[in-house]
Design brief:
Oligomer: heterodimer
CATH architecture of chain A: 3-Layer(aba) Sandwich
Largest interface: A-B, 98 and 131 residues
Number of helices of chain B: 34
Number of strands of chain B: 20
Helix content of chain B: 25-40%
CATH class of one domain in chain B: Mainly Beta
Distance between the termini of chain B: 32 Å
Shape of chain A: globular
Helix content of chain A: 25-40%
Chain lengths: 473, 999
């Protein structure tokens, strides 16, 4: 087992240092010096200097069509209606279509924007305005061609549920600057998510590191409000009594776990105090709300609201903020679908970058945008399913963009063939994406490991992968 | 300095256990060097092996002249590791080099004879003698001898015995997973009988709640869940397996039988329903129902899970590494891994209908009513007009209409004869022709199945009929084989083509008896199978378990004799080929049409009525009564009753495949589904004694092997798991791992003694648990003195009793019992206790969580519906499992979210209100103590009582002054400031660390 960090959680320390019983004695030395700040999510040193302190990951669940947004392929218009040669398709398995399906041309016009001259679809007018802030990678590829496995793969490095998610790896590896909010927060809008709770689970890492989903109804954090009838003082009085009795018990039985429990109750209380302030957007100016297109409390603007909330979470020291927006799975009418989704997301994504920039937060916040795979150059149509002019899942090539801390703004990377089918330049595997994200936070992805079931696990799997140097500032 | 000194003592202690002698020891000194520096190229992994040399097997190493035992000077290995020549030196440049010390050790080892040792865990345990101890009064049973001997060797002493309240609560929580009530605790504490504790233990072991408590631990290993996992995460029915576990544990089923029935109950001679239900163990793997997946890929992942889980549960080995490569350290090659998979890989995975007697009886009663109503149907037929009694006119009307019906039916019916194929081929499934000419499909299916059938045609046929047929062996009785994503039992026939030689035959038209597709907005017209478009087709969704017909008229009669080839294509985004069907043909000159009349009756109708016997006539008459429009209203009651027939529960089981169609298993390069290499034969790990040669190497043989003396790990793994349940960690801490890389056990001899004792006592889990709780070791006080905290904070040496947070389910169950709400009902479908709607709203499809009514709201937590992608929040916050993996050891976190749950979750507030209500009858002075004891068993100390009293008074005052709302806090309109204040007291006490701690 490599020891990834200078300071480790106590539990981690027990498991990994020294040999046999000796480790326990060492641990006890640590235990005695434990303080409230020695919680498992307290900040820890990184492997090397970090460019970014936190990540906002705009996860476009369902897989947006790169061919309608970022990867312009006029050749597809030319070939529309004809099948792609089997020599190109090779043995690829598809979810819905047959490999001999015909080509479908891009549904939107493209133009170059900004100083970088990046080519974007007309359906992304707001992003076009801030295009020089972002770095576009058109050569991302993945191993999975179904939603649930592919979403899990991006988040946990495995297509099977149950592995630790990226946010939990970060919490485990470098802790969090927030002591009144979770280190890993999940926000969601749009339709259903395919990957389930495993996408923010902690797998075999200590469960303290699991992501906390904010709920769109009721308490944002489960049970963060006082029960009905209990005012602030009643809660404080109760906590004081609990603390007093726990301390009495600590004196009798001497178990340091009681101290941890007392601290956990105090942090719970801080979260209770913090949450209403966090969720209260009244301190935001009308200009800011308009920038995002946010309308607090209105579900129709859920994504914009979440982007604004993401910035507020970033300000408050949360390490990993994942903003899911689902609804990109356009098996039919990809044109209408993409138009609708961009209507909900384009402005807020651009606004988030602008707002972070204005507040000086973009320099140390890594912003990532992308889905779990791409969409086929071939059309999807099915009479049984009532589908026309859609696109199926395409794992071979798709587009993601990155911005902020650690990223070279305006960079453009990778290319696909004239059909948008295969990557022909600078392939970036999902594990490379993960390695890059960790790198921006000062983490060597090969050294962030955890021993479980006789294996040293890491987020980026066993094969060799690298941070994408061309992307890095 | 004193700290450092203590550290030294413990390290020395650890070493004294491991270092038996000064000479070079293979397991301790040599294996680690070979494992880290040599095995990567000269080890178990045949793919990576260089020069065909393996150093992990002594005989191979000597045969290949790697070394000469006793003669380092003549040994190539020594020459190579000492060589200055970069081309010759081992390990080669660029690899991790040997240190001088390591070189010396290897040399010494060869000089001493180069003996190899089997890793200790691979050597069967021998019953050790009890060690002698100085304090002979302390031990209560053999366990204590081992523990005390170790403590005395460390110069330590056991802790005093726990007080009786603590002990009572501890043993209740451990054996039945619930705390005692105050009365139960008092009756034990005040019992002067010296056997009082033993009596209590025996009573708890007999309690039905014992099985519920221990089932939960087993279900962690079984990765039990009530949903399929992955994207859609739909519900599944496998709770009969959960109930089987509870029953087996309550019956103290010996662990060997418990094992065999779960792994291979279906293969036992005359397997009972229970034994088949038990095979649900390995059906608890996840099922991906996402549209468009490759079902065989996820079946492979399920197999990977089964191999890993079997390794963890019954061998304590992490076989999982072997999926992608040979194990680097443990003697598990990649081939070994896939051989293990082959042992488990030959089963089909059907649903078993559980013949629940109560439900069967319910069905029988309704069926009787239906029969009576059907018999009375003619009495409701509208009578003819005319002379005679109503009865006569009615009877005449029935007979008249019946004759007319027969006439019409005979006219519309053509004679079909069954075509039997002389040749059948498919892309994967196996087709066989049954006695009645129907064709049955078994084996694996895909998203694009193609059946090719050839028939010898002797007559000029004019139409072809496809019958789809139900069968108990198919999902939801078929006729299709869809088992995920679409409706179970669904099929989707995309295309049906006919050919004579190379020439396609033309069809004129198509008709069906029913058509509906399962997913999507498309139609299911019969002509879809002729349109050359794979995405359209015929299906009979919603009518699973029924037979339907598709009739295709030929454009021209076939030129007889000829060979007809029929190709059926089943292409959908999920696997949906037919399971049972039959093909017939007619030579009738009129265009045929699919008839609603059952096929056997059609056959009758083509014969002359003179030939019908009375039974046949009655059958036709019944069909007439069931369809004649004049009785439509009269039949409504019957239809209603049919719908009310209670369904029998189903459960997911294993069923070994027939001998003539075994599933092949391959080694998969790098563990990838798409990279199968050579086929492997089933076998256990090469390093361990093999299966009996005279029995087939299959699942049953493997299950029996796992609990035989040939598996040296079984006893140790089983007792270690039990030990962890009582002490919080096992004698081997890494319970999933008894491999060469595992931490040494703190009490290796005790582990072996218990393993032998467990088998000697007939694999009885209850006897094992009894042995542990009767030990003085278990009964010690758990108080952590400053000395103990410094010396052994994790209690590895067992100088005190266990103290740690209880599991998620116990947190809720304890409070349910304390609040008097707990339901005692055992078993049945899973239930939905209250939780915020937002928990499952996050899951795919905005899943609803409809809270169960009545006592189901308060059932024990192991009955809570377990949804993999949105686990019950109050459990996952306390490290409850998701069912995605086999969990041999749960995390025990201590977090703010746990605090928020216990403080603010409405489910717990309801319990606080219930506890306060229970205390209403108690004398005011004793009320705080009453509440305290409901939750903590022991009486409060003076200081605790005082603190509670102060709090209660202050809150009552605020409530009285309307600063707080008594009705809201009290949870009802009748709440007073006083009653509400006691709710606040109960809520505070529920949040004490001690309530959720076993100590």
């Amino acid at each position: 087992m490599q020891i990834p960090f200078h300071t480790q959680t106590r539990r981690h320390f027990f498991r990994d240092c020294g040999v046999g019983v000796g480790k326990i004695a060492l641990a006890s030395l640590l235990a005695r010096t434990a303080t409230a700040s020695d919680t498992p999510t307290a900040p820890k040193p990184t492997h090397f200097a970090a460019k970014a302190k936190r990540i906002i990951y705009l996860f476009m669940a369902g897989a947006p069509s790169q061919l309608e947004l970022f990867d312009y392929k006029p050749k597809l218009t030319e070939l529309e209606g004809r099948p792609i040669p089997p020599s190109v398709v090779k043995g690829q398995r598809y979810a819905f279509i047959q490999p001999d399906a015909a080509v479908l041309g891009p549904r939107f016009k493209f133009a170059k924007h900004g100083e970088s001259g990046a080519e974007l679809s007309e359906i992304l007018p707001q992003l076009a305005k801030v295009v020089d802030e972002i770095a576009i990678v058109r050569s991302v590829h993945t191993d999975k061609f179904n939603h649930s496995p592919a979403q899990l793969f991006l988040n946990t490095g495995s297509g099977i549920p149950g592995r630790p998610s990226m946010g939990s790896w970060l919490s485990y590896g470098i802790g969090s600057d927030a002591d009144d909010l979770p280190s890993f927060v999940v926000l969601k809008s749009g339709g259903s998510l395919s990957g389930g709770a495993s996408m923010w689970g902690s797998g075999f890492l200590p469960s303290t590191h699991q992501g906390v989903p904010f709920r769109s109804q009721g308490d944002p954090i489960l049970n963060v409000s006082n029960p009905r009838g209990y005012d602030e003082r009643a809660q404080r009085d109760s906590l004081d009594l609990i603390r007093k009795l726990n301390e009495e018990r600590l004196d009798v039985v001497g178990d340091p776990e009681i101290t941890t429990r007392i601290n956990a109750y105090e942090m719970a209380y801080r979260m209770q105090s913090r949450a209403p302030e966090l969720m209260d957007f009244s301190s935001e100016t009308a200009e800011t709300l308009a920038l995002y297109g946010a309308t607090p409390g209105d579900g129709k603007h859920a994504f914009a609201n979440n982007c604004l909330l993401a910035r507020r979470l970033a300000e408050r020291g949360v390490r990993f903020i994942q903003v899911y927006h689902s609804g990109w799975d356009h098996h039919s009418n990809v044109e209408g679908g993409v138009r609708g989704q961009c209507g909900q997301t384009d402005q807020a994504c651009a606004a988030l970058l602008q707002d972070l920039r204005q507040r000086g937060l973009l320099d140390d916040t890594l912003v990532v945008w992308g889905g779990e795979f791409g969409r086929t150059p071939m059309v999807e149509a099915s009479a049984a399913l009532g589908r026309t002019k859609g696109r199926d899942h395409h794992p071979q090539a798709y587009t993601m963009w990155f911005a902020g801390g650690g990223i070279r703004p305006g960079a453009s990377l990778g290319a696909t063939d004239e059909l948008g089918f295969h990557v022909v330049d600078k392939p970036v595997h999902v594990h490379d994406v993960q390695a890059t994200m960790l790198h921006c936070l000062g983490i060597d992805h090969e050294r962030l490991t955890f021993r479980f079931n006789g294996l040293n696990f890491r987020l980026t799997g066993v094969e060799e992968h690298h941070p994408v140097q061309e992307l890095l500032a | 300095m004193p700290r450092l000194f203590c550290l030294f003592v413990i390290l020395a202690g650890a070493c004294s256990q491991a270092r038996a002698a000064d000479s070079v020891n293979f397991n301790r000194d040599v294996r680690p060097i070979l494992a880290t520096k040599c095995f990567a190229c000269h080890g178990p992994d045949e793919e990576q092996r260089e020069a065909e040399l393996r150093l992990d097997v002594r005989k191979s190493a000597i045969t290949k002249e790697a070394f000469v035992p006793g003669k380092p000077g003549e040994s190539e290995l020594v020459r190579r590791i000492l060589s200055d020549d970069a081309d010759e030196r081992m390990p080669p440049e660029g690899s991790d080099q040997l240190s001088d010390k390591e070189k010396t050790l290897l040399r010494e080892w060869i000089a001493a004879g180069a003996t190899y040792e089997q890793h200790w865990a691979f050597i069967p345990p021998q019953q050790p003698d009890l060690p002698t101890v100085t304090d002979a009064d302390w031990p209560k049973n053999a366990i204590d001898h081992f523990v005390l001997a170790r403590l005395e060797a460390e110069g330590m002493q056991p802790s005093p015995a726990a007080d009786r309240y603590t002990l009572c609560r501890r043993v209740y929580l451990d054996l039945i997973g619930l705390p005692p009530t105050s009365e139960e605790a008092d009756s034990f504490v005040n019992d002067k009988d010296p056997q009082a504790y033993e009596k209590l233990v025996d009573r708890l072991l007999k309690s039905q709640q014992y099985g519920e408590r221990w089932a939960r631990l087993w279900l962690d290993l079984a990765r039990y869940s009530d949903t399929n996992g992955y994207e859609k995460d739909r519900p599944r029915s496998i709770w009969p397996y959960r109930d089987w576990v509870i029953r087996a544990l309550n019956d103290d089923m010996p662990f060997d039988r418990f094992t065999i029935e779960q792994l291979a109950g279906d293969m036992l001679p005359d397997a009972t329903t229970d034994q088949r239900i038990a095979t649900g163990f390995h059906r608890n793997t996840m099922l991906n129902e996402e549209g468009g997946i490759d079902p065989l890929e996820y079946r492979f992942h399920a197999m990977v899970d089964r191999v890993a889980t079997t390794g963890t549960v019954w061998m304590g080995l992490t076989t999982g590494c072997g999926q992608c490569h040979s194990h680097k350290y443990d003697p598990i090659s990649q081939t070994d891994y896939y051989r293990l998979m082959a042992l488990l890989n030959n089963a089909d995975e059907p649903d078993l209908v559980v013949p629940d007697p109560a439900i069967l009886e319910g069905r029988r009663k309704i069926e009787e009513q239906i029969a009576a109503l059907e018999a009375a149907l003619p009495n409701q037929f509208p009578p003819l007009k005319g002379e005679g009694t109503v009865e006569e006119l009615r009877a005449a009307a029935v007979e008249h209409a019946f004759s007319k019906w027969i006439e019409q039916e005979r006219k519309a019916t053509v004679a079909w004869s069954v075509l039997r194929p002389h040749h059948m081929a498919t892309n994967l499934p196996k087709l066989e022709t049954l006695a009645d000419g129907s064709i049955f499909s078994t084996g694996d299916i895909t998203k694009r199945d193609v059946f090719t059938l050839r028939f010898k045609i002797e007559e000029p046929i004019t139409a072809i009929r496809l019958e789809t047929l139900p069968d108990d062996r198919l999902p939801a009785r078929g006729p299709g084989r869809a088992f995920y994503e679409g409706r179970k039992g669904n099929f989707f026939l995309s295309e049906l083509k006919g050919r004579i030689g190379d020439s396609p035959i033309k069809f004129a038209d198509a008709s069906h008896t029913f058509g509906k597709i399962a997913i999507g907005s498309g139609n299911a017209n019969a002509t879809n199978v002729l349109d050359g478009e794979g995405s359209t087709g015929w299906s009979t969704a919603t009518r699973e378990g029924e037979s339907h017909r598709l009739v295709l008229n030929l454009a021209e009669p076939l030129p007889a004799p000829c060979e007809l080839e029929i190709e059926m294509l089943f292409e959908r985004h999920f696997a949906a080929s037919l399971g049972l069907f039959r093909i017939s043909a007619t030579t009738a000159s009129d265009a045929a049409k699919a008839s609603q009349t059952p096929v056997d009756l059609q056959q009758l109708l083509t014969l002359s009525p003179d030939t019908w016997d009375e039974v046949q006539r009655q059958t036709l008459r019944q069909q007439f009564l069931r369809t004649v429009p004049e009785l439509a209203d009269a039949r409504k009651e019957i239809d209603k009753l049919r719908k009310a027939l209670p369904a029998l529960p189903t459960t997911m089981v294993m069923l070994e495949r027939p001998a003539d169609n075994p599933r092949k298993t391959f080694r998969h390069h790098r563990g990838e589904f798409l990279s199968p290499r050579e086929e492997v034969t089933p076998a256990v790990l090469e390093t361990l004694p093999q299966l009996d040669g005279d029995q087939p190497a299959d699942r049953l043989a493997f299950a029996r092997w796992l609990v035989s003396e040939k598996n040296p790990l079984i006893g140790r793994v089983a007792v270690n798991r039990a030990w962890r349940a009582f002490f919080g960690s096992g004698l081997m801490r890494t319970s999933g791992d008894f491999g060469t890389q595992s931490d040494p056990s703190t009490h290796p001899v005790l582990l072996d003694w218990l393993a032998c004792e467990f088998v000697a006592r007939g694999w009885s889990m209850k006897k094992l648990h009894r042995l542990i709780v009767m030990s003085a070791t278990y009964q010690q006080s758990s108080r952590i003195t400053p000395e103990l905290l410094q010396r052994d904070p994790e209690n590895r040496l067992l100088a005190r009793g266990p103290r740690y947070r209880i599991d998620a389910e116990l947190v809720r169950d304890s409070m349910l019992k304390a609040s008097g709400l707990l339901s005692a009902k055992i078993g049945g479908p899973s239930v939905y206790p209250p939780q915020p709607a937002s928990v499952t709203a996050l899951a795919y499809g905005n899943t609803k969580w409809d809270v169960s009514p009545g006592e189901d709201r308060y059932r024990r937590s192991l009955y809570t519906f377990s949804k993999r992608t949105a686990p019950f929040a109050a459990y996952s916050v306390f490290d409850g499992p998701t069912g995605e993996n086999c969990v041999p050891r749960r995390d025990r976190s201590n977090t703010p979210l746990q605090a928020l749950t216990l403080l603010n979750d409405e489910m717990y507030l309801e319990m606080a209100q219930a506890i306060a209500k229970l205390s209403a009858d108690v004398n005011r002075d004793e009320r705080a103590s009453f509440i305290f004891r409901r939750l903590l068993t022991r009486p409060p100390s003076g200081a605790e009582s005082k603190a509670l009293a102060t709090f209660q008074r202050a809150q009552q005052q605020r409530l009285g002054a309307a600063e707080l709302d008594a009705e809201l806090i009290g949870g009802n309109d009748a709440a007073t400031p006083e009653s509400a204040s006691w709710v606040m007291v109960a809520r505070a006490v529920m949040n004490l660390d001690e309530v959720i701690t076993k100590q």
